[in-house]
Amino acid sequence: MQTVYTFGGGANHDDPRARDKTVTGGKGANLSEMASIGLPVPPGFTITTEECVRYLQHGADFSDDLRREVTKALIHIENTVGKRFGDAADPLLVSVRSGARVSMPGMMDTVLNLGLNDETVKGLAAVSGDDRFAWDSYRRFIQMYSDVVLGLDHGLFEEALEIAKEDRGYFTDTEMNAADWRSLVAEYEAIVKRELGQPFPQDVQAQLWGAIAAVFDSWDSERAKVYRRLNDIPGDWGTAVNVQAMVFGNMGDTSATGVAFTRDPSTGEKAYYGEWLVNAQGEDVVAGIRTPQYLTRRARELSGSDKPSMEEAMPEAFAELARTFELLERHYRDMQDIEFTVERRKLWMLQTRSGKRTAKAALKMAVDMAAEGLIDEKTAILRVDPMALDQLLHPTLDPEAPRDVLGKGLPASPGAASGKIVLDADTAETWSAKGEKVVLVRVETSPEDIHGMHAAQGILTARGGMTSHAAVVARGMGRPCVSGASQISIQLSERTLTVGAAQLMEGDTITIDGATGEIMRGQVPTIEPELAGDFGTLMEWADRHRRMKVRTNAETPDDCRKARQFGAEGIGLCRTEHMFFDAARISAVRQMILAENEAGRRRALAKLLPEQRSDFVEIFTTMAGLPCTIRLLDPPLHEFLPQADADFEELSRTLEVSIDHLRRRAAELHEFNPMLGHRGCRLGITYPEIYETQARAIFEAACQVTARGGEPVVPEIMIPLVGTRRELAILRKLVTETAAQVFAEREMQLDYLIGTMIELPRAALMAGEIAQEARFFSFGTNDLTQTTLGLSRDDAANFLSAYVEKGIYARDPFVSLDIEGVGQLISLAAERGRAAQPGIKLGICGEHGGDPASIAFCESLGLDYVSASPYRVPIARLAAAQAAL
Ligand code: PEP
Ligand code: MG
């Protein structure tokens, strides 16, 4: 198998493997593609991801094929550029970069200027006619190589640079002249010698192979592993390595470097967006050391900056860049994230990829691009990650609320976040694990901070632009972020922070607004999001393309209203126990449970009947004729038992029995394993009067609402935790008889359905039998997961993360369905249920009903609907459409 693919120059770009991300990684595949459509790409080659995997499996050993092919590919670069690698008179310099299938912070990123040594640096100086540039490039190379390849602390080099500037009375790097850089190079070399006991590698081949090995090794670094775990990226993909001829953005004032997006990645607006620096190399822009300038005149004017934009300072190069943007968008039919360099007025493209974007931007771009005819409606639907909608559905800061604005930075990732200030990633993680909401505040972030950024509600940095690490990662994670807030200074040793004049401490609450860049004291109130506009348009398209219905899990009129606003087409699960837990009713519920006999229970139930009925009246009214599945009481009686002394005292007064007696009764009802105890339909079997009362409340409410006119209510009554046909048969009879009684009393007749949850393995296996008694099945995948995996849904959190970390489960099975295992039971139950009763209605109402991967599985089984909590309804609508496409 070919291990290396060349691009640029006269390279042949026809081999599809060269443009296959799984082989040459995202960066490599796109470099090859850009070169093939005639864009100016410096020549280079890509080592395949397969070689990385091979290398890591073979104890860090390069294959002979690889050595041979790299040597050949290097000659391709040399011949194209007309320089030789290691030539003391006119050296070829290369960059070495990693590039996995998906962009992955946490891995070794880039080494620039590789090929410089004590001899070639002089050749570079002579050929470029610029001593300062040559020695600056060399010191950058030593610094980067030592950091990422040799593993030395970059702080050592930064400190030496700071001292060098201080000694000379300089403030900025630009004041350093050729001789200054040259003497710094000597210091850098001394640092390497001192730290490693050996000199900085002078052999350019050794430099190259060292860098290749470092890229491969970085695939298995801790940081990369954390990132993979958080983003569900398999460990066996490996990374490609890209070696490319250097072009220089730091050859004086006609040279520059920049990063750009073809549209605004934060808002989605169709406007070029980016940052650039004159006389600089790529890392200067993203490292946040020099503050970059705006790309376009408009962006500069909007910001009020007086530093010229690229459009103004380098109009020809900018015009060519703009042409390239258009070409790339048309070619890839998506927003591109680009790195470029201008070397002495000539534009070079270093990278392009589909740009990361906020949910808001993803939505706007999908809708806009479809309107522009760049993509079709289906592609637009597929462009938006359903989970990312979450960012849009949640509240934003109330514009009317008072704000104590302490300072302002760049609006790097939208959304509002309030939380306690934490000053490092580890603290963010520990505090958040204790249930605190935190905002991570750093000078700047690096890949080591990823776990803390993930744990935080939002991120605030003192340095770095809109394309800094913090900004890019936060947008990807959907965390609000304000970056480059220069009024912030952090006193890490005192764990304090000043924002302008305000002094704050770690633990103080702040609010950041990622849409405006504002930093505010305390917690600022929020308002509900706007659901019309692009969101409404995309949802409309999704609704046109999905097959499954989307219902909601809701039991309060508020939740029902919210879910309907979000587009729910009915209730898939109304958990009636939530009505029992109501503070005003709990006493009657306890009386019912602690009663010694049926008469006692009926007395308590009589108090609950009107309350339940009025709940159902409200729900049916709110849902206005949409189907409503109401589940009869499910949780273990155990859960309703009084705990506190005051509860026992109150009950003792109401029931006029002694506290001792009540305590004895409570002890009798105590269960060791309540989730497998006296719950679900077992309650209906043992205390039929409970289900009878609930059924009566439902039917009376349905009659009442229907009698008022409007759409007739067709209640769907659902029996939980059924394992046998006989259970369901007994309870069906009870519900049917109750319905008949109510209809006779009210002189009305309504349609209704009786069905069951499938949430026990036995129920799934016996679905053919059970279906004889049921008009519908609803898969209760929470309990089905719990009972199939033998994994307590209430206790598993403590150890489940270890299981996911070790890859025992790819994802938390309570969040994303265990399709391999639990999925088999669902599939089998659907098949047996349908065989026994063609047309039986099938749905899912466990948490998985709001998880896109699980929704795709439901689509593959042809289920009729999914049901999700209100905020997940739009996610489910989009995921269901994507699954159907
Ligand atoms: C389920 O078990 O999946 C379900 C929806 O019911 P509950 O979560 O109320 O047990
Ligand atoms: Mg359940």
The CATH class of the domain at 4-245 turns out to be: Alpha Beta
Number of distinct helices: 36
Number of strands: 33
Strand content: 15-25%
Radius of gyration: 33 Å
Q: Measure the end-to-end span.
A: 35 Å
Mean pLDDT, rounded to whole units?
92
Which sheet architecture does the biggest sheet show?
8 strands, mixed
Widest β-sheet, arrangement of strands: 14-24-23-16-17-18-19-15
In CATH terms, the superfamily of the domain at 4-245 is ATP-grasp fold, A domain
The helix fraction, in percent, is 40-55%
Q: Architecture of the domain at 4-245 in CATH?
A: 2-Layer Sandwich
**Globular, elongated, flat, extended or rod-shaped: what is the shape?**
elongated
Low-confidence stretches: none
- Strand-pairing-aware structural class: alpha/beta
Bound molecules: phosphoenolpyruvate, magnesium ion
Assembly category: single chain
Q: How would you explain this protein's 3D organization?
A:
The model has no long low-confidence stretch (mean pLDDT 92). The protein is 46% helix and 17% strand. The radius of gyration is 33 Å and the shape is elongated. It has 36 helices and 33 strands. The longest helix has 26 residues, at 598-623. Strands 14-24-23-16-17-18-19-15 form an 8-stranded mixed sheet. The protein is an alpha/beta fold and 885 residues long. Helix 15 crosses helix 20 and helix 28 (688-707) packs across helix 29 (725-746). The site of magnesium ion (MG) has 5 residues, from helix 32.
